[in-house]
Specification:
The complex is a heterodimer of chains A (389) and B (146). Chain A has 389 residues and is mainly β. Helix content of chain A is 12%, strand content 38%. Chain A is elongated and about 90 Å long. In chain B, 23% of the residues are buried. The chains are: A mainly beta (389), B mainly beta (146). Chains A and B meet through strand 19, strand 20 and strand 24 of A and strand 1, strand 2, strand 3 and helix 1 of B.
Chain lengths: 389, 146
């Protein structure tokens, strides 16, 4: 089994920041655990392990690696029975927590393959590349993914300055690590990992958050998260395209975020307050935020900030962004008709008896006929996440 | 409840002479914007791309021995701006930005990549509350035969 034991996310103001500057190391530690030790006891001159599972190719004479916290010992198997493993007595092994065992000899040519994927504009997970690594004596291996993610960045200005807020895939977006292991010429299936995020930036020496964009990640419990601007007070030149960059973070899931503006005259007296809802579908990316514009000529400065209404709203577009929720894609009318066609094809070719999983097909057939008859109401559409594309 | 800092934006609606609008990528990965105006100097740096001498069989009718292979022509644009002292820290970052673009069309918005000359940042008269800064940009090379 492969688990991610260390990722570069950190807690900032009590909230987990999973946003990293892509021009600096983004390293994950993966751990290989072939079998966990359930029981361990001394029998005569031997130590007997009871494991959760046993490798089929494990046999006496092979070396296994026993790992417990900071201890790693190579042991020679004296006998294998079911899920029981015997080795010669070793006082270092017979104390402390149970730990785990890696079948170093039995699993020939073991390596971990990490697949790095990004999320494209239509929220579909696409592969960038894979990294193959071997594990050390503790079963650990380090994977750095920044070079792969950098290929998704483009330094040029792609914003068209025509919408309140818009995700900029080239300035920062999400990525997912899937892992699998291979040994004895067997490649096991990928296990989907968590979602993380990158921004096209870099941090400076002695930054308190290190290689993490923490202070720029808006969090609901902290009100001074920064915009991605180096100016203390940026200037808006009337009539020219202007935007502020910010991280529309995964931590704002299920909350309606609003753009608040307070315009002021030359004496600092308030002229007007405005509130506009942000488009939540742009979340989980670096965004551009436009200002409202068309101000009175008396407006000399304006304060701008983002605010949450504090009321949870159901946002069905993406998952929580941490456990691969990104892979969710709204079902489109096109998909339904395709499946419907498949059903018809199956029925025509094999007869209805061959359609083994009838339930989803029947459901889709119903939806399909509803679309055809124009009966698909807004409520049904919302319930089924069907968008009219 | 507020989820970001309150960012104050200065609104500059004054008339500008010879405006040059620039956007650049900052080290955080965000995009900055600035309008340069006032003095705008255009210059051109050219280089020889080498030449060759051709064989002349009849000197009476020859047009000359030397022929150019190519040339390099790089237009330069020096811009200035009268800025508040607090803006200088932000404007300085344009010099080490990896992508600087100049606005060439408003509708639709179109940009052209430009390059600030290394070390060409000058701050004049910092005792005042405002200062004049000057930056020279290298524009796209002119495409020449050869």
């Amino acid at each position: 089994m492969i688990t991610v034991t260390q990722d570069p996310s950190i807690l900032v103001n009590g909230r987990r920041s999973k946003w990293f500057p892509v021009h600096q190391p983004i390293s994950f530690t993966l751990q290989r655990r072939d079998a966990t030790v359930r029981q361990r006891y001394k029998v005569g001159n031997e130590i007997r392990f009871k494991l959760n599972q046993m490798s089929l190719s494990a046999k006496a004479g092979q070396t296994v690696t026993y790992v417990r916290n900071s201890v790693t010992v190579d042991l020679v198997i004296t006998s294998v029975t079911g899920i029981y493993l015997k080795v010669a007595f070793n006082p270092i092994v017979n104390s402390g927590v149970m730990g785990f065992i890696n079948f170093t000899d039995a699993l020939i040519g073991h390596y971990i393959e990490t697949k790095v994927s990004y999320i494209d504009a239509s929220l579909i997970k696409r592969t960038i590349g894979t990294v193959k690594t071997k594990t050390d004596s503790f079963g650990n291996s380090k994977v750095s993914v920044q070079e792969l993610l950098k290929t998704r960045c483009d330094n040029s200005n792609q914003f068209l300055y025509n919408v309140r807020n818009k995700k900029q895939l080239n300035e920062g977006s999400g990525f997912i690590l899937d892992t699998r292991e291979a040994f004895n010429n067997i490649v096991r299936p990928y296990v989907a990992g968590n979602s993380f995020y990158f921004a096209n930036g870099s941090k400076q020496l002695q930054d308190p958050n290190g290689y993490n964009m923490g202070e720029f990640v808006p969090k609901l419990n902290f009100s001074d998260n920064k915009f991605l601007s180096v100016f203390k007070r940026p200037t808006y030149f009337v009539g020219y395209p202007f935007s502020l960059s910010f991280i529309y973070s995964d931590l704002l899931l299920n909350f309606q975020i609003q753009r608040k503006e307070q315009t002021k005259d030359i004496n600092g007296s308030v002229i007007a307050n405005t509130t506009d809802n942000l488009f939540s579908a742009e979340r989980n990316n670096v965004n551009r935020l436009m200002i409202k514009q068309s101000y009175l000529s008396t407006v000399k400065t304006l304060d701008i900030w983002l605010e949450s209404t504090g009321v949870a709203t159901t946002d069905n577009r993406t998952g929580n962004g941490y456990t691969g929720g990104f892979t969710f894609r709204p079902l489109r009318t096109r998909d339904i008709t395709t499946e419907l066609e498949i059903t018809r094809f199956h029925q025509a070719s094999f007869g209805s008896a061959q359609t083994t999983s009838t339930t989803p097909f029947t459901r889709n057939t119903e939806i399909g006929s509803m679309i055809k008859n124009g009966e698909l109401t807004e409520i049904v559409r919302t319930k089924l996440n069907v968008s009219q594309s | 409840m507020r989820v970001t800092e309150k960012k104050t934006i200065k609104v500059d609606g004054s008339c500008k002479s010879s405006p040059v609008y620039v956007s650049w990528l900052n080290v955080y990965g965000g995009r900055e914007h600035w309008l340069f105006d006032k003095i705008q100097t255009k210059s051109l740096v050219t280089q020889n791309g080498g030449s060759y001498e051709s064989y002349v069989s009849n000197i009476t009718s020859s047009r000359g021995f030397r022929n150019e292979i190519t040339k390099v022509a790089r237009p330069l644009l020096s811009v200035t701006a009268m800025v508040d002292i607090e803006d200088i820290e932000g404007l300085k970052t344009i010099l080490y930005s990896v992508n600087v673009e100049m606005l060439v069309s408003q509708n639709p918005v179109k940009w052209q990549t430009i390059f600030p000359q290394v070390g060409s940042f000058r701050i004049n008269d910092t005792k005042q509350t405002k200062a004049t800064i000057e930056i020279t940009f290298e524009l796209a090379d002119i495409n020449i035969q050869g």
